[in-house]
Design a protein that fits this description.
The chain is mainly alpha-helical. Helix content is 80%, strand content 0%. Helix 3 packs across helix 11 and helix 7 runs parallel beside helix 9.
Length: 399
């Protein structure tokens, strides 16, 4: 047997073998992370480009989660499903339109009083600037006012282009509203067929599991939207009542604004509440503004520690960090509408992923049903009486 020449083993070694294992592992992790980052970036850009379509569909999905129980109830009591859909949508539009009309009328009627009080507050501020500790002269105040007017005039072109942009946004909003309404009709009427058609692309051995996960996720969305409506109503009623007692102008329109803002968890009602604090400050003074701020903080504590745990239950609760991050991503991708739909979609995906990752889906179904606020987290189709009261069907999350 011939002896191996010295250094032959080293010659057969690959150049990669001389790389330190830590460097090799770091490089492998790096290129995988870069691929994931590229995928996420492409997905974010695609979502941003398609926001005009995705946001109306997401809003339609949320409204469907709110109206599906009503449509199912009417369908179970003998009303044709298409008629139940029409009644639910027309009734909802009528209620929303009536409330908005009433709020706008209240705003128009209270605007003169608000203007007078703001004018008086501006006069008081000018008097304080001239007679107070700053001892400013009238000329200095007028020069400051002239500077503001000059800045507005010098940026007239930008303001005009902003107005044109606003007109474009109004057109996009109208288009999005029509798309959401059209999508909502089909979600309410044929959601089961839509979901079954979409899940046909899933391999047959996992198709039933995916359908169950979708049903659970949509059930979570139903609970989330219901609870959010109740929480928003409580926020608006409590804060609006406090504003009315304090005599702050436009209490009802401000309460309506808080109701809308409450659909963005954690920050929505608090941010819109600051508008009420500002109006209380310029119309009623510092003391009233501080009392208003205290009312808003108290209502937020009631919401966070009592209402949300009671109404949402453990099944549809999302970690505050996930809420803040999802709202931020929604704002970046699609502005305020993106922030509005971000948290409900995250809650729905959270439940769906939990179901998909569960080792025994039937146990996860029972756990999620027990964790919810006393309700099944999945909707049962009204046209399938055999499945009522049983485990969730591997079917649609929409009907």
């Amino acid at each position: 047997m011939s002896e191996e020449a010295p250094g032959a083993g080293e010659a057969r070694r690959s150049p990669a073998d001389s790389v330190h294992p830590l460097v090799r592992v770091t490089a492998e992790w790096s290129w995988r992370l870069l691929v994931i980052f590229a995928l996420v970036t492409c997905l974010a850009l695609a979502l941003q480009k398609l926001a005009t379509v995705i946001i109306p569909v997401a809003i339609a999905l949320m409204v469907a989660a709110l109206l599906v129980p009503l449509v199912d109830w009417m369908s179970r009591h003998g009303v044709a499903r298409i008629l139940a859909v029409i009644i639910a949508i027309v009734g909802t539009l009528g209620i929303v339109g009536g409330v908005l009309t009433f709020v706008v009328e209240q705003f128009i009627s209270g605007l003169p009083e608000l203007t007078d009080q703001i004018t008086k507050s501006v006069g008081d501020i000018q008097d304080w600037l001239t007679t107070g500790p700053l001892k400013l002269s009238d000329d200095q105040i007028h020069r400051a006012g002239d500077s503001i007017v000059g800045a507005v005039q010098s940026n007239q072109q930008e303001l005009t282009s902003g107005a044109l942009t606003t007109a474009t946004v109004i057109g996009e909003l109208a288009t999005g509203a029509l798309l959401a309404l059209f999508t909502l009709i089909f979600f309410l009427y044929g959601g089961r067929q839509i979901w079954e058609f979409i899940t046909r692309i899933v391999p047959s051995q996992t198709r039933d599991r995916v359908r169950v996960a979708g049903s659970l996720g949509f059930g979570t969305l139903i609970g989330f939207v219901r609870a959010t409506v109740v929480v928003a109503a409580v926020d608006a009623i409590c804060i609006g009542t406090g504003l009315a007692i304090l005599g702050v102008p436009l209490a009802l329109p401000l309460a309506s604004l808080i109701f809308i803002g409450a659909f963005i968890p954690i920050i929505g009602a608090f941010a819109t509440g600051f508008i009420a604090v500002f109006i209380a400050l310029v119309t009623k003074g510092v003391i009233t503004a501080l009392i208003t701020l205290g009312i808003i903080i108290g209502v937020m504590q009631l919401e966070g520690h009592v209402l949300q745990p009671l109404l949402l239950g453990r099944a549809v609760r999302v970690h505050p960090l996930a809420v803040v991050l999802s709202i931020t991503v929604g704002l970046v991708l699609a502005g305020i509408p993106g922030a509005l739909v971000a948290v409900p979609l995250v809650a729905m995906l959270n439940t769906a992923v939990r179901s998909l990752l569960a080792e025994r889906p039937e146990q996860e179904v029972a756990k999620l049903a027990a964790d919810s606020a006393g309700e099944a987290v999945f909707p049962i189709a009204p046209d399938d009486p055999k499945q009522r009261g049983q485990a969730p069907p591997p079917a649609t999350p929409l009907s």
